[in-house]
Amino acid sequence: MAIVDPPAVEDASWCRTAIDRFVLARLESAGIEPAPTADRRTLARRAYFDLIGLPPTPEEMDAFLADDRPDAWERLVESLLDSPHYGERWGRHWLDVARYADSNGLDENTAFGNAWRYRDWVVKAFNQDLPFDRFVRMQVAGDLLPEPTDREEAIENLVATGFLSLGPKVLAEPDKEKMLVDIVDEQVDVVTKAFLAQTVGCARCHDHKFDPVSAKDYYAFQAFFAGVEYGDRPVKNETAERRKAKEIAEVEQRLQAIEHQLILLEPLASKDASDHSPRRAPIDHLGNVERFESIDARFIRFTVLGTEDNNRHEPCLDELEIFRAGAPTINVAHSSLGVKTSSSGNYSESGIHQLKHINEGLYGNSHSWISNEKGGGWVQFELPRIEKIDRITWSRDRTDQFKDRLPIEYRIEVANESGQWKTIAGSWDRIPFGHPEGVNIATATRNRLQARKALLDKQKQLVSKRNALKQSPMIYGGIFRKPEITHVLHRGDPEQPGQQVSPGLSPPLGDLELNPQHSGTERRVALARWISSPANPLTARVMVNRIWQGHFGRGMVDTSSDFGRSGAKPSHPELLDWLATRFVDSDWSIKQMHRLIVLSATYRQSSQIAAKVQEVDSDVRLLWRFPSRR
């Protein structure tokens, strides 16, 4: 970019920033005087709507009008730039450029269930004043940037690639090869228009009719995106996964400690089915402990006598564990130890509700057993040898997702080699399910239950935390495969491949050529670096023009996504160059551009119309007043 100095003007006292010198020089050469400064109420409303998209409240307006400090205007501008609504307002401008939508549109308006993550990232990026060069790199090649140590930042790098994946697609296209070509074409179109204001997509079927972009140039650019598809994908990153695994291990350790405390709080179960004194905790879908005096057993049977839904459904257990007495205590019922299981009947012999799930060590509805009998049924364990046991735990769903089909009446029996069954526990001495009123509970039992409830509340919180940690957030973004060879397609037809091309850029787009063997990783990284390079003559100009458009209703170049020959000529080319240089020098800070513009005398003009000047410049291209906006 050419280094441009602000021009000299006759009425330098009118100028507040260097921007005003460029504007006033044009006005003076045309013999036009700028409009007077707008009143403070008008300026405040203008700034509020421009920067946060909302009107000032009566209290905010009164406070500004009463502020007689010399820098009151500057203070107001800073407060609006610091508002979270700023990112919502200016993020919307970029989302329009990025063709953001929550659904596909076109033939099948499929919802993009995770597209919102890209939207929220854009809002956050504007609020944090993310340097625009990084903003560009994250959207073109965020998945390939050096892996950050911060988990949230690693996720954001991937979320940003949603830029490449959004946009309409013909999902019902029967020709899948054409569909892939159309998707890449859409990516080429949005990248070149959004960052470079070039209509490269016009050269898909033939050389560009107006700009010096050949079909070969188009397909060389398309080769940068070979191998880029779209869709929902889990967000994973090695550093973040290691940190998450450590957190999960810590949560598991705390859960084990709570489980041990719960065991100690659990009284011995009564063997007598006629003993209905409520001293044990009511049944819980998350888990139940049965403690009893140690006993020799090889066969253990759990018989369901009733379920929580008045026996309308078949009972379900996700896991039943039998623990050896003494130390070390281990689950002797685990399937890996050669335990045989049988049942009165199974709801299913395949899928997620199979008998084999009852003792495989996995929890949750997706790894559970369901009886084939409504309100009843039994499941039996045959151990490889007689074991001395003193505790059994069982649950409906330890992941806290399902509470239905819960057994609330049951009996547990054991037998040794003789085959004679002995009852060791049952539901009869538990507080009835649902805590019905009128149940007489001893004080000691009540105190124990309160302590138990406090532990269970902590347990549920930790289970929820563990479940959240185990889930990888989903994003709608790029799905990347090994790039295929790119050919120039005759008339854009994928069935008529011609000359093979390498990924690259030719003037006027740039000067960059890669080897065809370069991976998709190297291709997009190289492109992202070139687009965001200070040496690129277009990127800074294009973004500065978009910012200007957001404040004045139109850019210095009217066609903000087309700087080519068929686009409009800039109204103030030297000012555009100067602002672009300042943009790069200020570390690509978008908020700094707002300050330069909003603090200028040009921006603070009234929109008052002067009839004679209106005849000369009715479109207000010379900015002799603030353009009227609806």
In short:
The protein has helices spanning 18-29, 40-51, 58-66, 72-81, 84-97, 116-127, 132-141, 151-159, 162-165, 176-196, 215-222, 238-265, 443-470, 520-531, 539-552, 573-585, 590-598, 611-616, and strands spanning 228-234, 288-307, 316-317, 319-324, 340-343, 369-370, 377-395, 407-415, 422-426, 474-480, 486-489, 497-501, 504-505, 512-513. The protein is of the alpha+beta class. A hairpin with a 6-residue loop joins strand 8 (407-415) and strand 9 (422-426).
Describe the structure.
The two termini are 35 Å apart. Strands 2, 4, 5, 7, 8 and 9 form a six-stranded antiparallel β-sheet that branches. This protein has 18 helices and 14 strands. The relative contact order is 0.16. Strand 11 and strand 12 form a beta hairpin. The protein is 37% helix and 15% strand. The chain has 630 residues and is of the alpha+beta class. The longest helix is centred in the middle third of the chain and has 28 residues. The radius of gyration is 35 Å and the shape is elongated.
Topology:
Blueprint: H1 18-29, H2 40-51, H3 58-66, H4 72-81, H5 84-97, H6 116-127, H7 132-141, H8 151-159, H9 162-165, H10 176-196, H11 215-222, E1 228-234, H12 238-265, E2 288-307, E3 316-317, E4 319-324, E5 340-343, E6 369-370, E7 377-395, E8 407-415, E9 422-426, H13 443-470, E10 474-480, E11 486-489, E12 497-501, E13 504-505, E14 512-513, H14 520-531, H15 539-552, H16 573-585, H17 590-598, H18 611-616
Antiparallel strand pairs: 1-10, 2-7, 2-8, 3-6, 4-7, 5-7, 8-9, 11-12, 13-14
Helix pairs in contact: 2-4, 5-6, 7-14, 12-13, 15-16, 15-17
